[in-house]
Amino acid sequence: MAWSSRTRSRAALATALLIGGFAACHRDQLSSAPTTSTQPGTGHHAEFTNGGRIEAMLSVHAWATWPDGNFPPGISVIPLEEASVFLRDDPDRLAPSRHRRAIGKLAGYAIGNEAIRRALVVLQADPPTIEAALGALGPHLTPMQRETFVNDMFANVSGSCPWHQLKVTPPIPGAPQITTQVTIWVPRMLADAASAFDPQRWDECSKFFSPPERTFLAHLDSNNQPVADPALPAGSAIPGRHLYESFTCNQTGCSATFQNMLNITSWYSTPAAGSTDPRCPDLPGAGTSRYNLTYSLDEALGGEVLGVPNTVSIDGGEGCAQTDPTGGTQAFVSKTIEFTNPVTNGINQAILTFAEVAGEFADLLCCVEATSESSTTLPTPPASGPGSPNLTDVEPVN
User: Fold this and answer.
1) Mean pLDDT across the stretch 167-181?
2) For residue 70, how many other CB atoms are within 10 A of its CB?
3) Which among 40, 255, 261, 339 is least buried, having the fewest CB atoms inside 10 angstroms?
4) Which domains are seen in the chain, by residue range?
5) pTM
6) Spatial distance between the Cα atoms of 210 and 208, rounded to a whole number of angstroms
7) How far is 123 from 301, CA to CA, in rounded Å?
8) Average pLDDT of span 112-141
């Protein structure tokens, strides 16, 4: 989408307000074993584990949604300051992306709340700077558009993978199914993005599926147990295979596990510029190479939600990643989950969990280190495209 001249001038003013707004922290990569760190000012020692990362991010989602702390039944969180300290200090190589997403979520949805402002300071963001930048854009942005814009204010937080234009459409409360959509631009060559996108690597790149081996090509034996099949090169075309997945989310704010066999297919195409594809409605063709992925439930092998046996009846998704003609890769993904117990689909815990599953697509696409010289040359992200606030189309916030 093209921005109007008025929007561009507002965006320029907002950019000018960013100078001095953030001091990025250096982080070392996290080893496979958990590390322990003292949280400054609390004396509390926290292990940086995937469980802790899920707990911290789910708490951010909950506080952004209910900043006054009046959480509905079934929502469990850790204190927002504790979550913010964890996300700020986590040495994991994908921590900068989560740190940045936390700033965008909290500021985009509830920057007027004093507790949220204190958390932003802990996250090394300056609330007045953010408010001034948002104010320069006008009053009619939705919370989701504010989140996208604030995320891009802090692109320097993302280390070697400063993604842009992350737009997460979260699940709709009360809907019969849990559906999310994500669009994003990443400074990666398509080969690297496709390699990270490949379902065989979900257990390397997603905190909900790690550690390996928990997503792999497989078949069921005579006892209905998954048996690993030979892996294919990550990012290659997969013509109709089965994949075993094991999802785990068991800590404060989340209690769910499930094991499934999925049908997966991936392939490459070159859609014409401006063409549309119903699988990826927010990603028009660019006349460049595109990686395509679809997956659906073949068989639910087991599961549990809130300590009660429960499996999924739908677990499917579609996605595309394509070379951006101006550099980098544009991507879109959608996911739909439905549990056999219909009550589960509407509980707030499930909605927050899959909002984070969607948001971590930004982390996932940056999971694979750049493998070529051209991949490490960070292109200038486009001024418009997937996730960009197009202020001429924005309806006033009620």
Assistant:
1) 90
2) 7
3) 40
4) 5-160 (no CATH), 164-376 (3.30.530.20)
5) 0.84
6) 6
7) 40
8) 96
